[in-house]
């Protein structure tokens, strides 16, 4: 009897439960047992697990978040934790791990794979910045949420003749800002990949005003920064176990700078964790389900050390080391499309 251990790590996002459901039900089809590991890698270190059955995953497909809980635990910060993790894999008779997460969770999975632990990765991030896959689940939902917010802010911006700055998630990659900005008709989109010139941004917004358009929408990713600034704006100097600081504040910075340059009333809306919450879109439910099924198929074939990925419309397997080698940044051809509408 094969026993699969499944965990979710890093930030939560819509679609995680769809993957868990698919792993459990596909595994049952082949006679596999599934053990849910609570709170990511922390649960495997602490031995906090629960059996997952068909009943466990009934009704979770449309539910946001993760029924297993999550954490940003890095077992490789302490060699003793790595040993506890390995001991618990043996203790619970886990024959293969399914690790669902982004760059950090998959980075741990890749290290474990090099140590001979059978592991399969499933890419998860609303930022869509995991390499080797065209899209990750959660991203479509986040873009839909941000687009709706931009649509709503348009009406109040136009009514009050304001500039509305919308700060969205995107530490290293501005996929959400770019896609939602285009979909929502933003008048300026600022992303981490392209340091921006404050005077140039103000110039675009001034040009709109002179054409009689007395309102503007600026969408900015949290990791975006003006030219000449060292590092992104942060909320504090504290870091998580993977060394990441908590970003936030670029929206407020922009508000102050634009008001100073343009003399126009400017307001900022920080969408924050709203982007992660709620029910996944149909697209994300389907993609997450396909990923979960494919992960079990890899286990069945004993094809470990791989991550399932979307290439075109096909689900394929790619080496974990390829998936975590670098981050996937915004396609500049797509970003240039947005720039056509600046100042208009």
From TrEMBL:
The question of whether Transferase is a record keyword is answered with yes
> Which key words tag this protein in UniProt?
Allosteric enzyme, Cytoplasm, Glycolysis, Kinase, Magnesium, Metal-binding, Transferase
**Active site, per annotation:** 127 (proton acceptor)
**Where does this protein hold diphosphate?**
11
- Which Pfam families does this UniProt record tie to the protein? PFK
* Site for Important for catalytic activity and substrate specificity, residues: 104
InterPro entries the UniProt entry points to: ATP_PFK (IPR022953), ATP_PFK_prok-type (IPR012003), PFKA_ATP_prok (IPR012828), Phosphofructokinase_CS (IPR015912), Phosphofructokinase_dom (IPR000023), Phosphofructokinase_III (IPR012829), PKF_sf (IPR035966)
For binding Mg(2+), which residues are annotated in this chain's numbering? 103
Name-wise, this protein is Pyrophosphate--fructose 6-phosphate 1-phosphotransferase
Task: Please name the source species.
Answer: Methanoculleus bourgensis (strain ATCC 43281 / DSM 3045 / OCM 15 / MS2)
């Amino acid at each position: 009897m094969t026993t699969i251990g499944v965990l979710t790590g890093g930030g939560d996002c819509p679609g995680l439960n769809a993957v868990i459901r698919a792993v459990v039900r596909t595994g049952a089809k082949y006679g596999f047992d599934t053990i849910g590991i609570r709170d990511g890698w922390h649960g495997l270190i602490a031995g906090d697990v629960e059996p997952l059955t068909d009943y466990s995953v009934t009704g979770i497909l449309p539910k946001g978040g993760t029924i297993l809980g999550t954490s940003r635990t890095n077992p490789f910060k302490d060699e003793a934790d790595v040993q506890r993790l390995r001991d618990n894999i043996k203790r619970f008779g886990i024959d293969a791990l399914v690790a669902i997460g982004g760059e950090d969770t998959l980075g741990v999975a890749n290290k474990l794979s090099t140590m001979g632990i059978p592991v399969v990765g499933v890419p998860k991030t609303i930022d869509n910045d995991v390499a080797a896959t065209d899209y990750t689940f959660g991203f479509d939902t986040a873009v839909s949420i941000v687009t709706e917010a931009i649509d709503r802010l348009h009406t109040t911006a136009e009514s009050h003749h304001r500039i509305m700055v919308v700060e969205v998630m995107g530490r290293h990659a501005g996929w959400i800002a770019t896609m939602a900005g285009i979909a929502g008709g933003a008048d300026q989109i600022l992303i981490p990949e392209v340091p921006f010139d404050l005077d140039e941004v103000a110039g675009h917004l001034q040009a709109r005003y002179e054409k009689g358009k007395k309102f503007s929408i600026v969408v900015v990713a949290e990791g975006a920064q003006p030219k000449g600034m060292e590092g992104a704006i942060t909320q504090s100097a504290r870091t998580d176990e993977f060394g990441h600081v908590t970003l936030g504040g670029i929206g407020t910075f922009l508000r102050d700078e634009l008001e100073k340059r343009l003399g126009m009333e400017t307001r900022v809306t920080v969408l924050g964790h709203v982007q992660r919450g709620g029910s996944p879109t149909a697209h994300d439910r389907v993609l997450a389900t396909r990923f979960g099924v494919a992960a079990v198929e890899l286990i069945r074939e004993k094809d470990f050390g791989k991550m399932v990925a979307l290439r075109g419309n096909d689900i394929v397997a790619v080496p974990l080391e390829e998936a975590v080698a670098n981050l996937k940044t915004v396609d500049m051809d797509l970003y240039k499309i947005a720039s056509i509408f600046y100042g208009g």
